[in-house]
Each structure stands twice: as C-alpha cells, then as structure tokens.
Amino acid sequence: MCTLEKRGNIFILTLTGDHQHRLNPTLLSAIQSALTRIRQQVTTSPSSATPSALITTANGKFFSNGYDLDWARIPAQAQARRDRAILADSMLRSIVKDLLTFPMPTIAAVTGHASAAGFILALSHDYVLMRSDRGFLYMSELDINLVIPRWFVAVVDAKVGSPAARREVVMKAAKLTAKYAVRLGVVESDHGSAAETVEAAVELAEGLVKRGWDGHVYADNRKNFLRDLIRRVEDTSEHNITGSRL
C-alpha cells in the first residue's frame, strides 16, 4: 500500500500502485504505521537531533481520490455503514493530527488527482507541490451530494489564505489545476511532471534540512501556530464525513 524510503535526512512516503489510493482502513493503517516508524527513528536514534524532513507522494494517476465510499457502503444496514464511515474518519483524523504535530517539516508532492479527503491529506502538510501536466485538487462533496465535514472546512480555513480561494474550493467545488492552485495560494509551486514534482520536493526538503532546525522545536511552533486547527481535528463529537447519504 505504501513504501518508506530514507535519503539522507529526508523520508519519502509513497502510496504505491497504479490505482486511486482510496482511503480505507488498510491504506490508512499503512500510512499511520509509516509515520509512527519515522517518529520512532527520529526520537530514539543517537542522531535524533539531526534535522529531517518528510515528503509524501504517490504512484499513478491519483495522489488520493478520497475516502473509499464503496467500502463504506458495503453493509446493508445504515448503522453499519455509518460505523465504517466513522472508522475511516477517525483514522484520517489521527493521521492529520500526526502530520500537524510531526517533528520535522512536511511536504506533499501531489503527482495526481487529490479529491475530498485526499485533498485534505495533502493540505495537512506544511508545503504542497503539484504537477502541472495532469491532475487537479477537488473538494468534491457538492458535486456528489454530500455534506463536507466541519473539520475538513477547518483544514481549508487554516491552509487556504483568501476567502475567495476558500469559496472556490468549498462552495464551487472547483477542480483546481496546478497553475490555478498556485495563483490562489493553495499550493507552493507547480512542476512539469510527476518526476519533476518529486525532485522539487526533495530540493525543498534539502533546503529546509540545511536550516538546522530542531525537529521538536519546529513541531512545538507548528502546534502553537495551528493550535485551533489541531483542536478541531481532535474534536470527534461530529462524524459527518459523508452527511446522511451513505
């Protein structure tokens, strides 16, 4: 489901396979496990004080096409479907919280479509880089007749600067190409191909590592900077991941 590579002080987490990388418990568990392994390496090794960075990317046409709604809809009973939806929501919240508190800079190298929960996964990184020859960022809930979760909106509020851009994302369900996303301030930069996007992410990561920041201090500053968002992600009193139409 995913691989973890280490190049010097840069960790590269890749969602593998030429498919949609739909977020179900299997893939979410694999991502969480990889993040846990990185945390363990940087907190227990003798060189734990060495600055590091994380890049998350994906193989194929999709970065992630969001929650696996087909998996969530398998049970015949409505409560069982809701239980599956809540499970996926809880697991993604855990990953997003992990990224928001991660002890190093994080970069999403978006090499394909990132829709709905997949878009949220990308936005949960400190930086988002995107290929320009294929793919779009797309908060699809309006177009598929679903209610966007409030905590998704909290991520968009924290990560997308202007009200006009947030309206494009949430209330117009705009399919943002890389160049349009750069103009809106949603992503850091656009690049000509998947390979060039990953290369640019590595270059950015190398520059951040060279700054020599202590990872725990970096994480503590991010926690202060995004404390309201982290609280919203932690608030599991609402689990409206797909409205009432599963």
From TrEMBL:
Which InterPro entries does UniProt cross-reference here?
Answer: ClpP/crotonase-like_dom_sf, Enoyl-CoA_hydra/iso
What name does this protein carry?
A: Uncharacterized protein
Q: Which organism is it from?
A: Stylosanthes scabra
Lineage of origin: Eukaryota, Viridiplantae, Streptophyta, Embryophyta, Tracheophyta
